[in-house]
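Before a colleague's protein record goes any further, I have to sign it off. Thanks in advance; the entry in question is below:
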Amino acid sequence: METSFAITGKGYTIVAADTTSARSIVKMKVDEDKIKTLSPHLLMAYSGEPGDTVQFAEYIERNIRLYQIRNLYALRPSAAASWVRRALADSIRSRKPYSVNLLLGGYDTSTFTPHLYWIDYFGTIAEVPFAAHGYGSYFALSLLDRYHDPEASLEEGLATLRRCIDEVAKRLVVSPGKYKVKVVDKDGVREIEL
């Protein structure tokens, strides 16, 4: 029952994910952080099989950090997304594929633009203005399609995100209780309370 959303706006990307960790009908944790900070201007929300998600997210986080140490600069969002897509595409062709869906959001400090990438477990990638994964996406995508504005301020983007969360809480049978929300913009990554 995992749910994650992401929205881009004027100079920012918002990424939100539920904090519930469950397997079948058992809720194991209610404070799981499913959003990794990969670099000062790059976030990744992940969902999928519990073991795969944590292992793959840590693998990506460590390798992006290693790139930054070796080259003295961080990967831009487009380059990071391409590398992550390739890692997933290689994994699906191996004996131990990762079953992980990702939303990769970042802010490009050289072009001063926000970016958002939707990546599924097959290694399919798309740059999108808004995205969702999980059961909540069935309800949220229509709201995002209607209310998303690429020129919206951060407050307007958070209001749109709040609409999505409220709709999922109202209509999904087993709705997640809490969400963790992070924003990336020219000032870097920060967590926001809704």
Observations:
- The mean pLDDT is 94.
- Residues 41 and 188 are 5 Å apart (CA to CA).
- The two ends are 21 Å apart (CA to CA).
- The first helix runs from residue 50 to 71.
